[in-house]
Design brief:
This protein has 539 residues and is mainly β. It has six helices and 29 strands. Helices cover 8% and strands 24% of the residues. Strand 2, helix 1 and strand 3 form a beta-alpha-beta unit. The protein starts with 15 loop residues before the first strand and ends in a 14-residue tail after the last strand. It comes from Arachis hypogaea (Peanut). InterPro entries: LRR_dom_sf, LRR_R13L1-DRL21. This is R13L1/DRL21-like LRR repeat region domain-containing protein.
Length: 539
C-alpha cells in the first residue's frame, strides 16, 4: 500500500488493505482509520509478525464495517508457531455488530474464541476457506442470526463433533444449534470421515446442504445426519415436491429446500424414510440404488409421482388403491411387466416410457372416467392396449402411442370421438392403420413420428390419412429417408392451420401450392434439402 495511509483519518471507504513487510506499509497503518465503513478486506496477513502489530490495527474499534475479509496468501502453510498465528487472529477481532465474516488461508490450528461467540448477534454469513492446518472447526452453533455458512479446504478435519455446536461456556445448549442457518456447505475436506449431531434439534431452518469433494465421509453416517436434519426442519411439513437422485455425475451431495420443493442428490438411502416421514403433494425420484415403494409408504395426499432413471425400483403393490392424479415412469422399474389402472382410480395423466419389460397396461370394469391423458412410448415388449378403450376411458382427450413395435394397429374405432390429441409412430405398421382414425371428429392435433420407418420415401399414401374435420395442427417428424411429402393428400384436412415438418433430412419434394387453403403456418426445421424455414404459407 502507499506510504502514509494511516494519516487519512477521515477516510470512509477503503475496499482493501494489503499488508506490507515494512513498517511504513504495515498493518499498524490501519490504527487511525476508525471511520471505515461498509465492506473491508485485509490481505497478506502473513506479513504480520506478532500480536502487537495485529492489535495496533484496532480492528475492533472500526464500528461501521459491515463485512470483513481476513486473508492469508496461499503458499507455504507450515508455520513455526501456531500459537502466534492464533494470537494474531485473536487480535484482529472485529466489533460485535459485524454482519459478514470471511477468513481465508488462516495458518493456525485452532480458532480463537471470539469466532462464533453469541454476542455477534447480527452476523448472518460466515465463510472459512483453506484453513489447512485447523484440526477442529470453531464453535458457530450459537450465532443467533447466522443464515449462510461455507467451510472449504480444511484438510486436517477428521470429525465434526460437539465443538461445532456448543456455546462459548461449554455448557449444555440452551437453544437449538444454528437456529437461523439456511445454507450449509462443505467442500474439499479430504480427511473428513465423521459427522455427529447433538441430541438437540440442530439446523431447524436449514434449506440447503451441499457437500462435495469429501471422499472419506461415510455414507451411512451422512444419510443419518440428513435424516435428522430433515426431521428437525420447521419447514419440512410444507414440502410438496421431493426430488431424489444418485450421485452418478460426480457433482457431490446436495440437499435443497426451496419453498415447497425439496431436492436431494446423492443421499440415496433416505428415500424410504422421506416417504414415511413427509406429507407430500408431489414426489419426484431419480435414484440409482434399489428402492421398494410399498403401498403404506405413500402418503394419502400424494398426487404426483414421477420416477426417472430408477431401474431397480419396485413400483407399487397394485392390489392397493392410490390417490395419484399424475404418474410418470421413465427409464425405470425394470421388474414391471404389467400395470393395472385399477390401482389408480383418480389418475388423470399416465405417462410410461422406456420401460423395457412392460407387456401390458390393463383396466377392468368399471370404466376409468377421470383418465384424460394416456402416453405409452418406446416400450418394446408392450403387446396391447386395453380393449374397448372408448368404454374404459370415456373422457380420454390425449393419446400417445409411439415406439411400441408390437402394437401394429391403432385402436381406431375403439376410441371415443372426443379425443383431441393423438401421437403415433415409431413403427411402420402403425402408419398403414391411420385410416382407422376416421371417427375422431374432434381431433385437433396429430403428431406422426417416422422413426424406424426407414422404408418410407413418400408420405402420406393415397387414402392413408383419414378425413379429420377438426384437425388444425399436424406434426410430421423423423422420417429419415422421406423424399416426398404428398401435399395433395392433405387437401381433405379442411381445417388445417399449422403444418410442422421436422428432422426429415432427405425431404426434397414438396408442392407447397397444393397444401390446404386454410393453412396459416408452415414450419420446416432440420430439413436441409428444402432450404430453410417458412413461417407463413401466404407470405
Amino acid at each position: 500500500m502507499p506510504k502514509g495511509m494511516g494519516k487519512l483519518k477521515q477516510l470512509h471507504i477503503l475496499s482493501n488493505f494489503v499488508v506490507g513487510k515494512h513498517e511504513e506499509n504495515g498493518i499498524q497503518d490501519l490504527g487511525g482509520l476508525l471511520n471505515l465503513q461498509g465492506s473491508f478486506e485485509i490481505q497478506k496477513l502473513e506479513n504480520v509478525n506478532d500480536v502487537n502489530q495485529a492489535r495496533s490495527a484496532r480492528i475492533i474499534d472500526k464500528k461501521h464495517i459491515d463485512e470483513l475479509l481476513l486473508e492469508w496468501s496461499s503458499g507455504d502453510d507450515m508455520v513455526s508457531d501456531t500459537q502466534t498465528e492464533r494470537g494474531i487472529l485473536h487480535a484482529l477481532q472485529p466489533h460485535t455488530g459485524l454482519k459478514v465474516l470471511r477468513i481465508y488461508g488462516y495458518k493456525g490450528n485452532i480458532f480463537p474464541d471470539w469466532i462464533g461467540h453469541s454476542f455477534y448477534k447480527n452476523m448472518t454469513r460466515v465463510y472459512l476457506l483453506n484453513c489447512k492446518n485447523c484440526c477442529m472447526l470453531p464453535s458457530l452453533g450459537q450465532l443467533p442470526s447466522l443464515k449462510s455458512l461455507r467451510i472449504e479446504g480444511f484438510g486436517q478435519i477428521n470429525c465434526i463433533g460437539d465443538e461445532f455446536y456448543k456455546n462459548e461456556d461449554n455448557h449444555s445448549l440452551h437453544i437449538a444449534p444454528f437456529p437461523s442457518l439456511e445454507i450449509l456447505e462443505f467442500h474439499d475436506m479430504a480427511c473428513w470421515e465423521g459427522w455427529h449431531l447433538p441430541d438437540s434439534q440442530a439446523f431447524p431452518q436449514l434449506k440447503r446442504l451441499g457437500i462435495s469433494d469429501c471422499q472419506m465421509l461415510k455414507g451411512d453416517m451422512l444419510n443419518h445426519v440428513l435424516m435428522r436434519i430433515i426431521s428437525s426442519s420447521l419447514d419440512v411439513s410444507k414440502v410438496r415436491k421431493l426430488k431424489m437422485q444418485g450421485d452418478n455425475d460426480g457433482w457431490g451431495k446436495d440437499m435443497s429446500l426451496n419453498g415447497n420443493s425439496l431436492s436431494i442428490r446423492g443421499f440415496e438411502s433416505v428415500v424410504e424414510y422421506a416417504l414415511k416421514a413427509m406429507i407430500m403433494h408431489h414426489l419426484t425420484s431419480g435414484c440409482s440404488s434399489a428402492i421398494y415403494l410399498q403401498g403404506n409408504y405413500l402418503p394419502k395426499s400424494l398426487q404426483k409421482l414421477t420416477i426417472r432413471h430408477c431401474r431397480k425400483m419396485e413400483l407399487l403393490q397394485q392390489q392397493h388403491e392410490y390417490d395419484l392424479v399424475e404418474l410418470q415412469i421413465e427409464y425405470s422399474c425394470d421388474s414391471l411387466t404389467s400395470l393395472s389402472l385399477d390401482a389408480f382410480p383418480n389418475l388423470k395423466n399416465l405417462d410410461v416410457s422406456w420401460c423395457k419389460n412392460l407387456e401390458s397396461v390393463s383396466k377392468s370394469e368399471p370404466p376409468h372416467t377421470v383418465l384424460q391423458r394416456l402416453s405409452v412410448s418406446f416400450c418394446n415388449k408392450l403387446e396391447a392396449l386395453p380393449h374397448d378403450m372408448s368404454t374404459l376411458f370415456p373422457n380420454l382427450q390425449s393419446l400417445d402411442i409411439q415406439g411400441c413395435p408390437n402394437i401394429c394397429r391403432l385402436p381406431g374405432r375403439g376410441l371415443k370421438p372426443n379425443l383431441n390429441s393423438l401421437t403415433v409412430g415409431g413403427c411402420e405398421k402403425q402408419l398403414s392403420s391411420l385410416w382407422l382414425m376416421s371417427n375422431l371428429s374432434a381431433l385437433t392435433h396429430l403428431t406422426i413420428n417416422g422413426s424406424d420407418c426407414d422404408s418410407v420415401k413418400s408420405f402420406p399414401d393415397w387414402g392413408s390419412l383419414p378425413r379429420l374435420p377438426s384437425l388444425t395442427t399436424l406434426h410430421i417428424s423423423k422420417f429419415h429417408n422421406l423424399e416426398t411429402l404428398e401435399c395433395n393428400q392433405l387437401l381433405h384436412l379442411t381445417s388445417l392451420q399449422c403444418l410442422h415438418i421436422q428432422q426429415c433430412y432427405k425431404l426434397k419434394n414438396m408442392a407447397v401450392e397444393k397444401l390446404p387453403s386454410s393453412l396459416f403456418q408452415l414450419q420446416i426445421v432440420d430439413c436441409p434439402l428444402l432450404g430453410g424455414l417458412c413461417k407463413n404459407k401466404h407470405q
